[in-house]
């Protein structure tokens, strides 16, 4: 599978001929602007949204309206999208897996908060576990370390995990190492770091911390595509 990183927690995974975009926050991100990322050139067949905070949905309506992508998200976010004129939505919540043309996706627990930019309720935050013919992966969303992560190996043998590492609002690097133990996956793509001062980290130290634990931390540059 190919993964392209767009900054903060926004990335795109190409699997089974489909482009799956996550948590689109691009146009307000000065780092993405500096790298020349053009939000209007990003294509998507699906957009998965972990929760309603502005740094995860800023470009959601813009991209969904242009691409016609299916927006997969909490029922409350699906309703909000409908009010914005976006009708191609799949509302969901934590629970059993949902089948899509690319495979299956399951909503799982994330320890965080979720509200829209105006402060209104945006449903439960969540992560997602994907099982596909080309491999399996876990996007934790914004979350603290939680024992619930130990359930994930019951559902999938992961090829990689996408975990927040910036601390302050989510797990930090040390907790992400524990999370990788819980989900039994030693290949981690780090997100949700270095966008704002409260989540600034030493990236070289973060990589060394993972290496010391026998794990790999991938930190693709904004706009970079990697094999995950």
Automatic annotation (TrEMBL):
Residues 7-192 form the Metallo-beta-lactamase domain. The keyword Hydrolase applies. InterPro entries: Metallo-B-lactamas, RibonucZ/Hydroxyglut_hydro, UPF0173_UPF0282_UlaG_hydrolase. One of its GO terms (molecular function) is hydrolase activity. The keyword Hydrolase applies. Gene3D superfamilies: Ribonuclease Z/Hydroxyacylglutathione hydrolase-like. This is Metal-dependent hydrolase. Keywords: Hydrolase. It comes from Filimonas effusa.
């Amino acid at each position: 599978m190919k993964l392209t990183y767009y900054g903060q927690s926004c990335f795109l995974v190409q699997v089974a001929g489909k482009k799956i975009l996550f948590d689109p926050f691009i146009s307000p991100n000065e780092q993405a602007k500096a790298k020349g990322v053009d939000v209007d050139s990003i294509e998507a067949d699906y957009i998965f949204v972990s929760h309603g905070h502005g740094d995860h949905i800023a470009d959601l309506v813009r991209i969904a309206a242009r691409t016609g992508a299916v927006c997969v998200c909490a029922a409350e976010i699906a309703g909000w999208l409908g009010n914005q004129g976006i009708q191609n939505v799949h509302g969901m919540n934590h629970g059993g897996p949902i089948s899509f043309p690319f495979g299956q996706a399951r909503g799982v627990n994330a320890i965080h908060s979720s509200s829209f930019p105006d402060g209104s309720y945006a449903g439960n935050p969540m992560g997602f576990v994907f099982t596909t013919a080309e491999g399996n992966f876990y996007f934790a969303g914004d979350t603290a370390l939680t024992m619930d992560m130990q359930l994930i190996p019951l559902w999938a043998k992961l090829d990689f995990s996408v975990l927040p590492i910036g601390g302050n609002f989510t797990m930090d690097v040390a907790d992400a190492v524990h999370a990788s133990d819980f989900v039994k996956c030693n290949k981690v793509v780090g997100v949700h770091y270095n966008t704002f001062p409260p989540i600034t980290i030493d990236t070289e130290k973060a990589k060394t911390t993972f290496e010391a634990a026998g794990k790999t931390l991938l930190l693709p540059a904004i706009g970079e595509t990697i094999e995950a």
